[in-house]
Amino acid sequence: MYIMMSWLATDIKSELADHYFWAAFRGGNIDTSRKDLGIEVPLAVPRLAIDRLATLRLKFQGASRKGNALHQARISFNGLQLGRVAEWKRQGSQVATRSIPWARVHNNQVNFMRIEALDTNKTPAGSYDFYLDWYEFDYWRSFRAEANRLEFNTNTEPRNRGKVHYSVRNIFHDAIDVYQIDENGITSRLTGGKVSRIGASHQILFEDTVNQYTRYFVISRSAYRSINALVPTPPTPLRNPSNQADYVAITHPDFAENIQPLVEFRRSQGLTTMVVDIGDIYDEFSDGLFNPVCHPAVPPVCL
Question: What start and end residues bound the annotated signal peptide (predicted)?
């Protein structure tokens, strides 16, 4: 079994930037002081199988401008309060890290994290004391492939170093590839693994020398994804030198309608606005491939 991260996160670069938070809290009101968030842990190790800890990290962002505003957030997981109440002041941020006994983590049903605002700042209706910016949840998962593929790492139970054998199950094809990967993609392909049949599925047993943190990707050759067709995309106006906009909103089509209030707000401030489909950026600057590196090229072109 190995450690897996489930996360819901964004990153705020500047107080001047538009930023969406996942939940808002105001103390003293049952409708705004408490939020329950479901956390699923796919293929997690059964909760009584190991004596280890899960880790929950949350980042809060203060919203109150009062000079004496004190924020207090009580964090619970499946009914268990996690540590002390988190405290910080005014518009500061706070990262809270809490450990959770693995016996409290459900592997076969949704887990619930509860956040309660205990603030007594007398914040008026329509305003909030603080926001939830992001959370991360580290949990232990079994070596069972899902959809004939599995990504995992060397942070395992039990902990191992030197020559380590890994066994990945639940693969429904006998031709299986194993790769070492990093944030940039594949670093090497591992060969010599032993494939055997277990019931209706297969497992692969392979060996590697572990001296540092390493990530692996195991995949059946039947699970590789291929492109069905290449089709031309309609032209976009992004490279048009006549484009002029003070404020550019880049969004996915699913959020185009929801972002309109923000665009209208900027327009009411006297700014000329432009809404850009994120797919058009990939088509125009990255040949249709998902590549965040192409984003910095957009503002100079649009503006």
Answer: none
Q: Which domain holds residue 179?
A: 149-223
**Distance separating alpha carbons of residues 13 and 4, to the nearest angstrom:** 27
Instruction: Round to whole Å and give the CA distance between 146 and 219.
Output: 10
Cβ–Cβ < 8 Å for 140, 157: yes
Domain assignment of residue 16, yes or no: yes
List beta partners, residue 72.
87
106 and 174 inside one domain: no
The C-alpha atoms of residue 191 and residue 178 are separated, in whole angstroms, by 7
Question: What distance in Å separates the CA atoms of residue 277 and residue 262, rounded to the nearest whole number?
Answer: 16
- Is pTM beyond 0.70 here? no
* CA proximity to 26, closest of 115, 95, 93: 115
Q: Quick check: 107 and 47 in contact, CB under 8 A?
A: yes
Strands 247-251 and 273-277: parallel
- Nearest Cα to 113, choosing from 85, 74, 71, 70? 74
Residues 23 and 60 in one domain: yes
Please tell me whether residues 259 and 198 are part of one structural domain.
no
Q: pLDDT tens across 146-194, in order?
A: 999 999 999 887 777 899 999 999 999 999 999 999 988 899 999 999 9
